[in-house]
Amino acid sequence: MNFNATSGARHPAQKGSRKKRVSDTAAMSAPAYPPPYNPYASAVPGNMPPNMNMYDGRYVLPPPYTASPDYSRIHPSFPPADQGFSIPSQFLNEPLVANVAMQYGQALVGSGKQLVGQELEKYVPFSRIKYYFAVDTRYVTKKLGLLFFPFTHSDWSLRYEQDGPVQPRYEINAPDLYIPTMAYVTYVLVAGLVLGMQDRFTPEVLSIQASTALAWTVFEIIVELITMYITNIQTNLKTLDLIAYGGYKYVGIIFAVLLSILFHKTGYFIGLIYCSMSLIFFLVRTLKVQILPIGTSPSHHDPYMHNSGNKRRMYLLLFVAGIQPFLMWWLSFHLISPPVPKS
Amino acid sequence: MLGHLELADVERKRYRLPSCKHIACLIVFLQTLAVLNPFRTTDASILQDTDLAGPLVFCLALGAFLLLSGKVHFGYIYGIGVMGCLGIYALLSLMAVSAVTLGTVVSVLGYCLLPMVILSGINVVLSLQGLTGFVLTGLAIAWCSLSASKLFVTALFMDHQQPLVAYPCALLYGVFALITIF
């Protein structure tokens, strides 16, 4: 199963290969036993025992049982044309049968894996998630620079291709999930480090930090989704976009906590305030493109985005951007050490 | 002995082929040397055969050196190793266009654990808590993650993503370094 990041373009090819595979296994899924395996009948060199003619698609009657009397017993539950497969242990010892069984098993495993992948795709959309991880080094460095200093960036619009936004690799304004994920993991590790430096570290602390931060992020996303649903605002924002934008705050948290190692409380608050301001600016500018309607939007941008509810959209935008500083403070204030008393 | 052949040649010398056990050790050693030079250009075929014996040997060696320093951390090594491998496997399967197998990930991460094993060996004789200790630790983490990311990027045909792969590997090896030092 190869999931390409440009999932839209890939699906027809996947469906095509799936069709091909189904047609391959269609021959095997015949109700009769054994599966009529045409290619293997022709691959067998000349000297095959008489009952091997079963491998033809047609249920031909075998020649008279002169050479192998063992296979003359007919299994009652099989269709009458099948004869001679009633002793599995002896049957499986035949080299041809072993080959066929292995090929059948391998093909079954392949189609089974594909089936599992399809089922899993319904619950966790891997192909959608792969889009958010299609990043490269240039994008990540530029995005981190943008998170810390968004004030000079001028063009915040998002380019689209035929069915979705351009991959983050090619569009600096597109959200990604690599930075939020890495920032989350780094946040947990930095929290462990800082607590270790204050002699407050136990291994449970790491899991407590991780689950607390995760719970708060999930809560924030749910509140945003409910708000968007209640106020009936329709945007292009997907849930994964919201997760991405919610995860950018961990970069600011890490910066503030690292400053607190050197400069204690003052360093922490300075870092927190600066990162909050830049994150608010970044989010307002980025989400303005996606939530507020653009007056002269190109025709392909979103024909379904209503121009009503501007005030509601503004409030949603300010809400999303405004809860970030509070959450940043809430998730990190317990990590800073009190200033060292001067002796 | 298995593999012990005698060849009669014109000078009537005996040539002895190495035994299978020796060949296996040799392969592990050669693969280790091949993967651990971060400045050597590698090709993608190096990961065709995923070998899990080398990584296992390195994990046991790491645990043994930690034991010599008075810390019994086999459980931590196993737990962090498993979780780290699963996490990096998930990340790489999302980031790379070509297919990733768990065996490849475990094999690469295990082989690149060697600098960490060397660090824990140094920790037995010197204490790593001073400035030189931090510098050595940083160098070891950088060496591990650079070689691991180089192998991943080469084997999975990822372009311009080596630092992005190196960072999570550095986090993982940083956790190993933490349990080595503290």
UniProtKB/TrEMBL annotation, chain A:
Xref: Pfam families: YIF1
GO BP annotation list: endoplasmic reticulum to Golgi vesicle-mediated transport; protein transport
Name used for this protein in its record: Protein YIF1
Keyword check for Endoplasmic reticulum: yes
Positions of region (Disordered): 1-28
Transmembrane stretches, start-end: 177-196, 208-230, 242-262, 268-287, 315-336
Function: Has a role in transport between endoplasmic reticulum and Golgi.
Keywords, in A-Z order: Endoplasmic reticulum, Golgi apparatus, Membrane, Protein transport, Transmembrane, Transmembrane helix, Transport
Presence of keyword Transmembrane helix: yes
Primary localisation category: endoplasmic reticulum
Compositionally biased region (Basic residues): 12-21
Species of the source: Cryptotermes secundus
Family indicated by similarity: Belongs to the YIF1 family.
Lineage, top ranks: Eukaryota, Metazoa, Ecdysozoa, Arthropoda, Hexapoda
Membrane topology of the entry: Multi-pass membrane protein
PANTHER family: YIP1 INTERACTING FACTOR HOMOLOG YIF1 PROTEIN (PTHR14083), YIP1D-INTERACTING FACTOR 1, ISOFORM C (PTHR14083:SF0)
GO cellular component: COPII-coated ER to Golgi transport vesicle; endoplasmic reticulum membrane; endoplasmic reticulum-Golgi intermediate compartment; Golgi membrane
Record's subcellular location: Endoplasmic reticulum membrane; Golgi apparatus membrane
